[in-house]
Amino acid sequence: MYKSLLRPLLFQLDPEKVHYLTADAVKFGYKLPFIENITQSMFQVQDQRLERELFGLKFPNPVGLAAGFDKDAKLIDEFAHFGFGFIEIGTLTPKPQSGNEKPRLFRLPKDQAIINRMGFNNEGVDAAVRRLEKRKSSIIVGGNIGKNKVTPNEEATNDYLYSFKALFDVVDYFVVNVSSPNTPDLRALQDKEPLQKLLLTLQEENQKHATPKPLLLKIAPDLNSEQLNDIIEIAIEARLSGIIATNTTVSRAGLHTSPDTVAGIGMGGLSGKPLTHHSTQIVRHLRTYLPKEIKLIGVGGIMTADDAVEKMQAGADLVQLYTGFIYEGPALVTRINKKLLTL
């Protein structure tokens, strides 16, 4: 129904407007009687064989919603009924910011892809905390944190610390995002020295608590082998719980969309099917050289159940959806979980 009826209609409209219209529709729908039960019966797959225990958390299934879809934690209770095993909010910054100028979200239907240059648009971490304090669902929630655009890289650690402290009591795990291509100079924080400083500082703060929270790092798909090896070394040194591979790419290689159309869109991170193979290769590389106690979440180009299985066979412990969720709808979550039960 989604692909044959709803998606063709939605894809006629501006992508960012559709996102907010859909969010409003979901909010409204959940005020109606029986919607929760109907949604659960359609999309949730409950089976002990799907459960995963990672870094002290018990995931009901290994399929999550990636950061970027519910930046401000407005739809936690609603999306909890769509079959996900966990939801990641953000990227959140200390201060609210509007993000980059519009238009900033573009579909590439011929490639089953999206280009975005949103720029960490969010209402600020404190607004998200207030919502999370009131949530009813017990679904696992991850907090993806970044820095404000106006904050220079030399002061970025303070931004990450602020959001870490603010979210500590209301999320189950943390993700440090230094890999978005849409905030100027952010990816420079992936360099060895600044990344070591950032992660060690956050881990020092984390260890002040009686029960520290899992701390993960989200990396770009555009790192070379030497940079990936630096990431592995830093992950071990900082005692990270896991790595999320990968964020969006700045590459435009191999696209079926016309070069003129792509050039007209301009800058931004590409996600979706063109990223499938490369992100899986990175997962495989990381799994080969990381200690087993550092877990991997595979994200990037998961458009089918087979894509998710391939990520997990390459070494991912969990997977996340974003672009695949937009192109395939919530039934993709169901198909992945049902596929896993056949293996």
Automatic annotation (TrEMBL):
Pathway: Pyrimidine metabolism; UMP biosynthesis via de novo pathway; orotate from (S)-dihydroorotate (quinone route): step 1/1
Biological processes per GO annotation: 'de novo' pyrimidine nucleobase biosynthetic process; 'de novo' UMP biosynthetic process
A GO term, aspect molecular function: dihydroorotate dehydrogenase (quinone) activity
Cofactor descriptive note: Binds 1 FMN per subunit.
Binding site for FMN: A67, G68, F69, D70, K71, T91, N144, N177, K218, T246, G272, G301, Y322, T323
Annotated EC: 1.3.5.2
InterPro entries according to UniProt: Aldolase_TIM, DHO_dehydrogenase, Dihydroorotate_DH_1_2, Dihydroorotate_DH_2, Dihydroorotate_DH_cat, Dihydroorotate_DH_CS
Subcellular location: Cell membrane; Membrane
Cofactor(s), by name: FMN
Known catalytic reactions: (S)-dihydroorotate + a quinone = orotate + a quinol
GO terms under cellular component: cytoplasm; plasma membrane
Membrane topology: Peripheral membrane protein
CDD domains to which the protein is assigned, alphabetical: DHOD_2_like (cd04738)
Signal peptide, first to last residue: none
Domain Dihydroorotate dehydrogenase catalytic: 50-341
Name this protein carries in UniProt: Dihydroorotate dehydrogenase (quinone)
Annotated organism of origin: Pontibacter cellulosilyticus
Encoding gene, per UniProt annotation: pyrD
